[in-house]
Design brief:
The protein is α+β, with helices and mostly antiparallel strands. Helix content is about 25%, strand content about 35%. It has a domain of about 120 residues.
């Protein structure tokens, strides 16, 4: 599955490292942190997908994002529950997500009106442990999203990057 991902700031990775002892109660801890903005599908023609991705984002300016706390999905549409994550507030990213829906159909239950910007930390385990983590206070982490990555989900690697600042329109 290919996707458009938001690069995660170093401060978020540092926070995940700091939270690691509390995450050990979960079945799976995410080692590499990323944020899916939009799933694009499994189309075998990667160059066509990249072209559509680039065209859909033409003229898109950088946006602001902020990690506001820890939350969890008690009943995620895929995989084991609960899913503990860093909550991301960004009207700009939500707007880009909606724009990409015009070019790439939504994945039911995950995208469109169900899309929740987040950075997964861990999954599986008890809801009690998830609630305990979600009750922690965090200092917000703000950053400017000035680029997005075209991501190969099978290989779990970025294939290319699109700079939003270069495509800015005034």
């Amino acid at each position: 599955m290919y996707s458009v991902n938001v690069p995660v700031p170093g401060e978020a990775r540092a926070l995940a490292t700091e939270l690691y002892p509390s995450l050990r109660a979960f079945e799976a801890i995410r080692e590499n942190h990323s944020m899916v903005l939009k799933r694009l599908g499994d189309d075998g023609h990667i160059s066509q997908l990249q072209h559509r991705f680039n065209r859909a984002l033409e003229g898109t300016a950088p946006v602001e994002a902020q990690i506001t706390g820890i939350d969890y999905f008690s009943d995620p549409p895929l995989g084991t529950a609960p899913v503990v994550y860093l909550a991301v507030d960004s009207p700009g990213l939500e707007s880009i997500h909606r724009e990409l829906l015009a070019e790439f159909p939504p994945v039911d239950g995950l995208e469109g009106p169900d899309y929740v910007p987040h950075i997964t930390l861990a999954r599986g385990g008890s809801v009690h442990d998830a609630k305990r983590l979600a009750s922690r206070d965090l200092e917000p982490i703000a950053w400017t999203v000035d680029g997005l990555e075209f991501w190969n989900g099978t290989e779990k690697v970025p294939v290319s990057r699109i700079s939003l600042s270069e495509r800015r329109t005034d």
